Amino acid sequence: MSNLYTPVSSLDRFNFGNGSLHDSSFGIFVTDESGLLQHLNEEAARILGFRNANDALEYSLHDFEMNTNCGLSDVFDNILAGENFKKTEHRCTNRLGHYAVLNISLGPFRDDGGGISGVMGTIWDVTESYQRKVKLEEADYVMSVISQVSEALASAAELNDVLRIILTGVTANQGLGFNRAFLLLINEEENMLEGKIAIGPNSSEEAHEIWSNLAGQHRTLLELLDDYWETEKNSGFPASSGIEDWKIDLNKPNFFAAVLESGSGIIVNDNVETSSESSKIFDHLQTESMAIVPIISKGRKLGIIAADNKITGKKITNTRLDLLQIFANNSAVAIEHSRLYDKVLERAKELEEINCQLANSQEQIIRAEKMSVIGELTSSIAHELRNPLMVIGGFANLMISSGDAGENAEYLNIILSETQRSESVLHQVLDFSRASRTSSREIKFNALVKEAYDYFQTKTKFRQKGIYLNLSEESAKVWGNPDQMLHVLLQFIHLTAEGMTDECKAKITTHFECNKVRLTIEYTGSQQARNNAKKIYDKIFGSSDGTQRMSLIVAGETIKYHGGNYGVENPTNQGPILFIELPAMKVSEDD
Prior knowledge:
Distance between the termini: 101 Å
Structural class: alpha+beta
CATH class of the largest domain: Alpha Beta
Shape: rod-shaped
Number of helices: 17
CATH superfamily of the largest domain: GAF domain
Strand order of the largest sheet: 8-7-6-11-10-9
CATH topology of the largest domain: Beta-Lactamase
Helix content: 40-55%
């Protein structure tokens, strides 16, 4: 203790009445052994709730204890025994009910002989400095909350992440500490507020479980924000149901619209007269009081944040409303940045698609030039070979028909047969060359398949064999050269016919799947007949270098040129299935 409690020769030394202690900024007093005031200055009288020092005489410290509840009664006897007592920043009321924050120091008062004859004490009224301290601490706390939320938002780009971090900061006890929070954004096209996210418990039982878990984790706000999704999933703030279905018409009178119009937050109570729209909102939330603040960025209205204390019933103060508004102002920047980020991603995706289209166009041009060169080359070669083949075949036929073949008749027949087969290949090459001169356009795929099928049935020796059509009911289109594609279909149907016997039939099917047009040719009949067809396909699609292989190469290049694919599938216990896939065009409603 200070020298105030050292022995003194007389109370007159303190000059309570008109000395330095009379006008002191702190109160000083002396009591007898029972606790009754014997001497005090004017400041002590004021703090205790008296008009002057004389009115306070004979006032007991035990009565003072009843008002301040500072624990003096428990230590009074200890003070008389020589101990000291001190209480700092004790919030209390005086005998008149006036609130004050006091620093209290008490110790034994000794008489001239050194014996303890009472209690001597000082009381300081530190209410103003304490309130300034509280305001500074509150400001520091707010800055800390905003700083931590801003740090969490800096690493969040997705809008949903931004919104959840914002509301976690509003509802977390380490943040603004509201029980529940709701965030709605404006749909500018419809002039509606639409619910995006809500965080907070829906019942007192749920709140007790959540808050108990969080209290045991001892995490900072930044730690809570860093893993907010785990918090919500495991022990945090479950989203209130139905928020995504909220749609509030801003053209109708309601307090949300009023907040956005005024640009400032309000505290709304359910006992004030509200519009029918506002009443519906209160009924839905089942709350009695709610703070609502606008989210505005550079004059542009983005939405609102609403928060309440439904579970605890704690009164929402204007100070909390102001803090929520500060929070909303910082949120506006984060929301704008997130939307800008989404636009950048969308633009990047568009550019990526454009680049893919350019690459595809370039590849298409290269393929077109390649097909054109192939067409010109094959046409030139075919014409150059056709004339000598006709001469060879003509002479062989002339020698056979003249009867001069003799023992060479067999060889001449072989020459004639091979010449005719070579001319047949040249006819196919010339057909492909002529088809390459046709421009690309929309093709109704089913119609093209039907045309190829009819041509095959009427123009070839296989027209009596069993090839059946099973065309899809869907109207599918492809983009390409119709003559080239007709040539491809005829080649594949010819390949099919080569593998058929009286016991082995074939079915041509078309259908549409996954933005692709698919044609399949499937063998039916006995297992032995299908196995034979598989052997023929294995030979044709293998390393064979015969005329069929040549036709397949030309047909395959044509399919790839049109962006498609082809091949043979061999399902278990089935015959081979020949397939062609081509990219489908979008069918218009008129088709």
